[in-house]
Amino acid sequence: MDEAIALFVADCSVRLDELESQLLALEREPQGRSALDAVFRAAHTIKGNATVMQHGEVEWFAHVAESVLARLRDGALQADAGLITVLLACCDHLRFLIGLAGMEAEDSPAFADADRARLIGLLVPYLEGEELHALPAPGLAPARAGAACAEECWRLQLRFAPEVLREGMDPVYFLRHLTSLGRIFSLHTCIDDLPEPPVYNPELCYLQFVVLLDTMADKQAIEDVFSFVRDRCDLQLTPPATRVKGYLGRIQALPDDDLHAGEMLMRVGALTPAELDSGLRTQRSESGERKPLGSILVDEGFVPPEVVTAVLQRQDEIKREQVRVSQQLRVSTEQLDGLIASMGVLQRTIEGLCRRDAPVSGGELASLQNEMTKARKCADSLRCSRFGELSRRLHRVVRDTAQELGKHADLRLSGGEILLDRTVVDLLGDALMHLLRNAIDHGLELPDQRQRVGKPAHGTLSVEAREDFGETGDWLVFAVSDDGAGIDCERVRAVAVAQGLLSDTLRPEAHALYPLLFEPGFSTVGTPTHFSGRGVGLDVVRDAVQALGGTLAVSSAPGLGCRFEIRLPAVFPGGRAQLQASAGTQPVV
Amino acid sequence: MLVQPMIVPEELTVHHVRTLAPRLIEAARSGERLNLDLSAVSHIDTAGIQLLLTVRREANSALTQLEFANPSAVVSEMVSFYQLDGLLQAHAPLLPV
Predict the structure, then answer these.
(1) Nearest CA in chain A to B14
(2) Among residues B81, B78, B74, B16, which one has the least CA distance to residue A203?
(3) Model confidence over A163-218: pLDDT tens digits?
(4) How far apart are CA A42 and CA A90, in angstroms?
(5) Between helices A3-28 and A391-405, what is the axis angle to 10°?
(6) CA A308 → CA A156, A263, A462, A535, distances in Å?
(7) Is A435 inside any structural domain?
(8) What per-residue string of b and e applies to A254-285 under the rule 16 or more CB within 10 Å gives b?
(9) Are residues A551 and A418 in the same domain?
(10) d(Cα A217, Cα A246) in Å, to the nearest integer?
(11) Is A70:A41 a contact under the CB 8 Å cutoff?
(12) Residue A462 and residue A482: Cα distance in Å, rounded?
């Protein structure tokens, strides 16, 4: 990669991290001047970088975001949840664009048209006057692509429910509406299912359709044409080869985040949320061994096999990259200077002793040992990072999940100063994020439900990190608790009985039911949401914690909330001093 | 031989096909030449198209010589939207007259 581009990508990534965490801070404290200034500065720097690099799309986008921020700074706008959501989405989009800039693919898309069109739509209410005129009209992207042959078209295979005609939802309305997205290249009306009289009922729909659509629109936009009739229509959407190539490019450009395959496919536009839900339902309904989601999505015709393959490969790459990054340390100069100073003292002392003829006294040895211990502590600390570094990720996940589910949640973190091995930080972060999502989705009640039972509308989640160095060994403890409804034991019991995990005649105590929550595939929710129920459950968290030699426990009080506790050994099975206590205590070896 | 055309009424839609279908299907199965005049049709929907398809298929299997005559603009447009242009073309069944 060109060195300048590498620098651009690296610098923008740091600015985007800053932008994101300051936006979250701004939402918590809308009047906070320093957060707003920091947000503004970050956006401005990204724009400046993009100008220098002549990256028009990033520049343009950062400029639009900056315009909104300027109105915010001038007091013309309020930093409410809606605006912060839009700005966070802009932040994600910029991350995506900057990721693309770092790619060497020769035909990387100039911009992700679908995301762009959607974001412009979201930004419009916050802009005014000339800024507004400078924007391209929303919905500009969908247009005919000028397909010259069938291979360049989207293929839509449609089967409507027989009752649609009687219900006033004639397929022809929806088919005609497709022309708002582009041009119908061809339409094949299939009459194979049209029965002969007397089976033929003139009021039922028997026709199926295969449409080739010449359009620039994305999958979601095409699916949206049928949203009104979605549960009355089987829709199979096959992208043209050029589009598939675009997905493959975008998959490569995805940030190195830990994402599920379904989320990755949605991010690149190859899968819609409705399709994901349908795939997850299929996965759930199967008895016996679960098929991987990817192959279900291929079987149902939602995603071309090569796209699923690319996502799986990218996931492997991301894992490898994470390992590589975890092997490279970003060290603060302060830490490094401490180590260098300590080594300097040691060297000078030893040199002094060598030059001298007199024997070494006990006091001198003790001070030498003291300095050595200090140096060792410094060196050990280089491997570690503060628990508080996870703060941005945890706040973001709480914010986004609560927002999407219509709930209010505040997150409190404590123990940010605790040091832990860098290789553990990511795994621990994933586990905590999962527990927080789970707590918001299953634990916290909706604001009006909370108020009805006399709780504040805002739920409180907390993540406490602490050291527990005692007789049972040295542990680091991470507790995730919420003040939601607690675990519904009756529901857990009913689901366990239904899944054959528990005999109907047994009435175990609450604490004996809790371990069932960690059974693979166990879920008390009927339909999966975007957050929980992704085919990954608490069993995944438990497995991850166990792989680190730790334990996961849960306790709950009905009506008052739930608490998950992760305990990790301060010394890992590997023998190396991987975890260590915070400054001031002796390193654990 | 001049065939008396059968006039298809204005509404060829889901609300009317139930009453129209038996009459048209019976005529299509008669084996006698059938001329369906579509000039009066001012509304047609997918149910209407399905009925025309059924009538065409019944006529073919009963060796009835069927002609859809004078299709109104809405009928032609609908047939052409569904890319079923063959439906209206008077392809005579293989019948010794």
Answers:
(1) A203
(2) B16
(3) 999 988 899 988 988 888 888 999 999 988 999 988 999 999 999 999 999 888 88
(4) 13
(5) 60
(6) 20, 12, 37, 17
(7) yes
(8) beeeebebbbbbbbbbbbbebbbbbbbeebbe
(9) yes
(10) 13
(11) no
(12) 6
Q: Which residues, including other chains, have CB under 8 Å from residue A427's CB and lie 6 or more apart?
A: A544, A547, A548
CATH number at residue B35: 3.30.750.24
What does chain B come to in residues?
Answer: 97
Q: Mark whether A54 and A99 lie in a shared domain.
A: yes
Test the B interface: residue of A158, A172, A173, A174 with most B CBs within 10 Å: A172
* A189, A197, A205 ranked by CB distance to B82: nearest: A189
Give the best residue of A163, A190, A203, A210 to mutate against chain B (max B CB count within 10 A): A203
Residue A357, both tokens? 């003829």
* Predicted TM-score (pTM) above 0.80: no
Residue A130 shares a structural domain with residue A216: no
Q: Is the distance from CB of A431 to CB of A566 less than 8 angstroms?
A: yes
Give me the domain span that covers residue A370.
Answer: 333-382
Counted domains in chain B: 1
Please give the full DSSP string across A332-385, using - where no structure is assigned. -HHHHHHHHHHHHHHHHHHHHHHH--SPPPHHHHHHHHHHHHHHHHHHHHHTEE
DSSP secondary structure string for all residues of A132-174: HHHSPPTT-S-------SGGGSEEEEEEE-GGGTTTT--HHHH
Quote the CA–CA distance of A47 and A64 in Å, as a whole number.
10
Looking at the complex, does the CB of residue A177 fall below 8 Å from at least one CB of chain B? Answer: no
Chain A, nearest residue to B19 by Cα: A202
How many other C-beta atoms lie within 10 A of the C-beta of residue A150? 12
B54:A170 CB<8 A: no
pLDDT in tens, A74-102: 888 888 888 898 898 888 888 888 887 77
